[in-house]
Amino acid sequence: QSVLTQPPSVSGAPGQRVTISCTGSSSNIGAGYDVHWYQQLPGTAPKFLIYDNTNRPSGVPDRFSGSKSGTSASLAITGLQAEDEADYYCQSYDSSLGGWVFGGGTKLTVL
Amino acid sequence: QVQLQESGPGLVKPSETLSLTCTVSGGSISSYYWSWIRQPPGKGLEWIGNIYFSGSTNYNPSLKSRLTISVDTSKNQFSLKLGSMTAADTAVYYCAREGPNCRGTSCYDYWGQGTLVTVSS
Prior knowledge:
heterodimer, A: mainly beta, six-stranded mixed sheet, three-stranded antiparallel sheet, 9 strands, 44% strand, globular, B: mainly beta, seven-stranded mixed sheet, four-stranded antiparallel sheet
């Protein structure tokens, strides 16, 4: 069981907006550690999507955005496209575990 | 463009030691942290450990007793050794670079394609 909790699945129709939550605790997100997000297309390595809660690396469309509040973070995807269908992972640091941790992942289905 | 490539055996027997190497091309291994991350089939990602180019390491406490990560700057490579392998260690093993732009918490901006390691007799 991951210390960062994500919904197992979310879905949306093309063009719609979806959000993926990442819920932590006082030893990780709530302690002020930044959250990063990754997109993993089927059969491929994860791709760097959002860093330091809200920032997009070069080349990531502005349809992807991140936010953080309290012990949680969220990834929002607007204008859903078929190619957005993938698994999404949040990542941070946990001081109780003494290491870097990932959420369990969320499978996004574009209907 | 930085590229990472994992290499090593695809099959390891129970109780044996896994040895993997990650070769970095398109950039120097110096001045960065480098990580190993794994993903059991159909499951999520797990951070294994990291190493700075100088050789200092951090290990996942749950794997620390079985784990050694080393670096060879002359070859632009870093390596993982994980002992006493069991079926629970079956996973795709990724190497990754820790991005220099992340403020306080390590992030991973470049990843290898991953290599599947199966533990079976």
